[in-house]
Amino acid sequence: MSFKFAAKEIGLNRATEVKYSQKNVRRMYAWQLEQAKVQDMDTQISTAVDNGEDVDSLIRKQYQMNIDFMDHTRAFMNDVLKLTAKQLEKFDDMEVTEATNLAVRLSMRLMGMSDKQVTAAMEANSEDEDDTSKKSAPESESSN
């Protein structure tokens, strides 16, 4: 089985066929694991800050984990989609959030979701982030 995947934002205008192969699914899980490690570190740092602990070493570790995650994201996209040098350069020039969202889209498709389901999930996540940012905005900013 396979599915078609296009990413106009990196110049992948013509949908390419992506197989649900063990190799691609393994790459997806490895990428998701790296993402989970970054999220775990964020939680560790928040807990340490809340407890008044020194977080310098954790922050240095977080920097390296973020670099590793960006490298894994790049490799995941390149390996699964077989990007050209130009497409990979466009991917590298994307903002981090945009690049991660593109990888999330690909990951969701590899988990068997349809384009329609992926779009709905991404929109729901975007709305949740908007709600969260509005709640955390300082009073003076949110009332203007």
Automatic annotation (TrEMBL):
A Pfam family it matches: Phage_TAC_3
InterPro entries given in the database record: Phage_TAC_Siphoviridae
Region (Disordered): 118-144
Identification of the protein by name: Terminase
